[in-house]
Fold these 3 entries.
Entry 1:
Amino acid sequence: MKNGLYCSAGYNWFSIGSEGRVSTCNALIYRADSYLGNIIYDDIKLRSDEIGFRCPNQECLQVCDRHWARKKVYKNDVELDYQEIINLEPYSSKKRAVSILFAPTWKCNYSCKYCTLPTKETYPDIPDVCDQFTAEQWIEAFSRFFDTNGIDGGIWHTNGGEPLYYNGIEKLFTFFSQKNFKIALTSNISADVFKKIVMAAPPESFGTINCSLHPTDKNFRWELYKSRVELLKSFNYPVSVNFVGHPDQLMLASMYADWCKSIEVNFALIPMVGTFDGINFPTVEHYPTPLKNIIKKYSNDSLSDVNKFIQGERVG
């Protein structure tokens, strides 16, 4: 056993893009050597060894990859560290449960300046296709994938792009609900949520609906966003507000957090580190004190998360 970080990506955790390519995890979707095949065209047989994939990056920093795949660290054939899946409830009473991150489209009606959606310019290896498959084609492909591998449920995460603008997304919600999957949706909810969600699958089919809040985008409409969060809540859907902590909109966080508290909806601020508009914030501590205080007030879960790995070792 070679030293380093191993995980269950490619066994019970995958990332699937709108072109159909199945990658072992979300961090490796731009690496050609991480593809298991194309779910539309190929009969993909998954690995039989659960934690046998040695991470080529030897790091795990993305929330989805860190929380939905098991991790082990080996040195000289000795297991030094183990991380369990963050929430095992959706896997209970199932013989072969998986967690899938699926982007039915890379298109979005927003144009947030901090967005990292893949484009042909930024990632030349990305196929120059989008939305070429119908919901019926996806359902057929997923059905074949499940039958081939004996998959009987788990979690189906869907984002994008903006998934609610994919034509037929409601058919996929219905399909995965019937296949014993908990649906985890991330959306800016600017589309018709009654038609796309409420009429498609019941509240108990959803593990969470993360309503992404982008107040500085030119297409953002506060009254529409507000009404749709409250509509979903009124139907007992598990909604939460995900506020993107870009420096340009951090000072607005308190206002939206207060509104969430008033309607008893969870508010989560995801802090951004890196270079923005020429200003570098390598860590939260590098932010000016007023912005840093906001981040620390509303980002306790992400700041206290100790499930990150760098150079094969746990950090945090």
Entry 2:
Amino acid sequence: MAAEVGVVMAASFSTMVCGARLGTWLGPEARKAVSYLYSTVVFPAMVFRGVAAIDLSGVDWQLMLTILLSKLAVAMVCLLFGIWRHGSQGLPHAAAYAMAASHSFDVTLGAPMAKVLFPVYAGYIYLNQSTQLVAVNPLLLILMEIGGSRSKGASISSTVASTVKGVATNPLVLATLVGLASGRAFPAGLPPVLAALSKQIADAGPFLGFVSLGLAMNNLSATSGSDVRDAAVLCAAKLVLMPLCYAALGSALGVTAPMAFLVFLGSLPASASVYSLTLTRGLSPRVVGPLVPVSMLLSVALSLLPNDAKLATVSAPAALRLGIGALAALSLLVPQGAVSPRPHAE
């Protein structure tokens, strides 16, 4: 089992290294173009295919409610943290923080791992993603649009119009809704041409996603102490608070899935698609960039440690989560003036 997960991780990080090397040859605009292609075309195609294949008739709706409430709770905590860090004019950055902590790397990384560790429940990986895209991300995108319009001095009517347009035309939201509709319209499977086209585009997803992360790694030298502190807090929200919410709410709501799966689902790392979004919009990409690969390594460690008999007996996963939380708490104790201030525009 560990060997199979190791293959997934080796391929993922090798592609990230390729992206880091590629970043030395590409300028800022070219790097943004790669991320834009991934976040607006390729990743939506992956989501569309995964969602279209879901059979909603056997879904545990208590688990779905657990997912929704957990994501909303973490998003709210990180939104407040982002407002505290960036001020009232930094609402778009705060919304990006909330999305980075609540949106998981489900399809590209979570699905391959779940098929190895929890094959019976692997379909919920796509539902975890769908909940984020349909119910959580639209709310955060609205806050991004409102904050952006306010900073430009736009009127209330134009702000509302741009907000509605931005959410309604978001590729990930559209891909999820169309995927759900297609799954109901074609229960036996997508039409051959649509299936072949979406598969051809989606197959580029893992490569472009990890290349985008590699491009972020290439720019880590620009990360400030303030960025690192914020990334540490978001990492704790992602890998400590989120699984705690999944476990507590799942137990309270009587979810039938094993607790180990709930913790795994809540411990999936931050998503490369969110990094791509922050890069193209200029919303703290130097915070989200380091967060994604670091949370990937820690997430895999948290997923594999319980399967090691010797380490499981000494509560290694709990110790690691405690360390992540302690590091985040210490970073919050650093005086505001001890880290260099960061302008909103990046």
Entry 3:
Amino acid sequence: MTYTAIVVGTDGSETAALAVGHAAALAEMLLAQLLVVTAGDNPEPIAEKVAAELKDSGIRARGITRTGSAAEVLLDIAEEENADLIVVGDRGMGKRKMFLGSVPDKVAQHSPTDVLIVRTSSGKPPEGYEHVLVATDGSRTADRAARKGIALSKRFRTKLTLVHVGHPKTGEILLEDTRANIGGGVAADLHAVQGEPAERIIELANAAGADLIVIGNKGMTGARRALLGSVPLTVSQIAPCDVLIVRTTTVFASELGKGEGAIINVDGQNVAAYRDEEGALHAVSAKCTHMGCTVDWNPTEKTWDCPCHGSRFHIDGVNFDGPAPKPLSKLDL
């Protein structure tokens, strides 16, 4: 598992500096490009100054200052730069409440990529993680989050806890399967419990002393749609530690079943891929030809739909509705 391009926002505050520190540590470890972003009505070039300091310490950093809403700018840049992670501090997030106008809430709910929410409110300096907790329900989408969480734990050489909330006997089987087949037999504490999922995940994270929770964003289907599943949303808002929300709507081509479509990543490029009933793979660019937003798979209509302005495309990329002026480019995988 690796991230190649990481986006982090800053307004020059001390709490923002903590989020930048976490993003920079990840970028350095993973040899990733770090995009430092400042936004606002009349923003000062803070990002460029921060990026210059990071470059002096050997990190591949670039500063971007742009006029506009902070959340919207972060989301736009993540799409434009094909970033695979946004790091955001938790300032403005509510405890057991939803504050939908806040930057971290909006980014968490609408991001086109993974999101790491850093608990800057704790005032802790950026350090390597020591204990990662991965929550899974055994579904194909949850498996994708588990794969990334386990890989991250191996990279940081942390303790690992795997959690399933549901029927305990079923959970025990699913967790052992996850540990063996996804984790390659990695050492992990397994907890199959019953109860309200978000509450039990947070409770177990507290008990284990986990400093990072990894959870999939099941339910999110568009880059601008507030459809983050209720469990990851609650965990992201009230967990005591950092939370990595994995965008599970991006999959591996090999995971596509017959009649299924999804956005996959090929050499840093988002690709809209569909496997037909005969097993053949069809691929087109995932970039809408109207304004460049990333399209979504519509499983009911079996079309590629743009969440930004409503353009729609057939499986072969031909546009048939909305403002898109031309088809999606066909690709040969």
